[in-house]
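User: Quick sanity check before I run a bigger batch. Here is a single chain. Can you write out its predicted 3D structure?
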Amino acid sequence: MTLPTIDLALRPAHELTRMLRRREVSALELLEHHLARVERLDGSLNAVVVRQFEAARERARAADAALARGETWGPLHGLPMTVKESFDLPGSPTTWGFPEHRGNLATRPAVAVRRLLDAGAVIFGKTNIPVALADWQTFNPIYGTTNNPWDLARGPGGSSGGSAAALAAGLTPLELGSDIGASIRNPAHFCGVYGHKPTWGVVPMEGHQLPGEECIDSVDIGVAGPLARSATDLVLAMDIVSSPLHSFGPMGWVPAQWRDTAPAPHRCRVSIVTDDPLAPVDTEIQQALAGLADFLRREGVQVADDARPVDSRQSHRVYMNLLRSATGAWLDAGTYGRFQTLAAQYPADDESFPAIHYRASTLTHRDWVAFDEQRAVLRRQWRAFFEQHDFLIMPIATGPAWLHNQQGERWERMVPVNGQPQPTTASLFWAGYPGLCGLPATVVPLGLSGEGLPVGAQIVGPVFSDPVGLRFARWLETEYRAFQPPPMAA
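Assistant: Done. Predicted structure follows.
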């Protein structure tokens, strides 16, 4: 069988699964097609850093044999795909970029990975991440640097940077990522693909941790979710990884009671926020959001300009303190002591990024509870907002993908935004705005900047409204903008 050399690899996962079921292409042929693209393109991207090609070939052959017998493993039967390096996959290392964990070979899959396998997926590798999943650039001392397929001089975002780069380049049709500080949303925006940060707790996180860690997300923010080249593929993946028909394991997760009562997309009520003084946004992204607002109004959507649920400064302050207190809990004793010393050098009212970083990383439990109390107030304000609006649509970052810059602390790295230098950490404002309260957010592409770089937006809804946001994203994909491959993938 002669296969298309480009179109097949860039088709969405739901089309590929249909082709597999109809036996228009075999699982082995589809796998080999993707492996050939990895061999051809990944030398310049460095996205698929852990490879299980032979094991995947064996599984693809078994998938073909099963289908020939009339057996179907599930909705992903025979579909090749990859997952983020931070998820356990048997026989492969889970390092989170730490050299000391090179030998941490998984013996069983993460729960979300197991669900993908049970659905018939053929997982052939894992994709690159930054150290500790703690950067919006993707590089580490084990696997090196991942490049953006739209411009190799730029990063693909992080921490699911390898995931988004591999998707955009057609190396994989579906990915599993994770998000605590826009680690799904930011790479999707930087690489022009779709991503979904689920409601907190909907997708189990067991198997997304390093040895010795049991309390995976002590701040109730971190989630696992899919990235894809189509909003329909996000729905496909979420139906699998969040299915209440599976055991949730010992982590205490409970099935989501999906809220799908919103009106049809063109009858929705949305607010669109384009900018904020705490994190000024590039004018091209603001213009892209304004263009989306114009389209929505033409389609009959009720669009409010700049209606906001919470105070920006309070929301960001609470998010940064709870986020850094969670990451600080895993510091070794020496680093923790050093951070305490550094925190003491800043006045109590100093809200600069390094002051918050060091102070929150060593936060007392008493202070943590005080911030969590403030979060409870913000949750109530969000609930009131969603009584008047179905969605809040907003930026994901202050600009498109950045040029590589691995020097110094994250807050010392500057990027130009509207002709002014801005620390890369400013974009965490847009990460935390919905992330603090565990709200679902779906990333959709909006087009390209003047430099030919992707820009996107996040569609934020109330808790457990994931299907509603995904349905809205599918409508936009059909009626407004769809995935556009980078030139190197063509």
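The longest strand covers residues 441-448.

User: Great, the batch can go ahead then.
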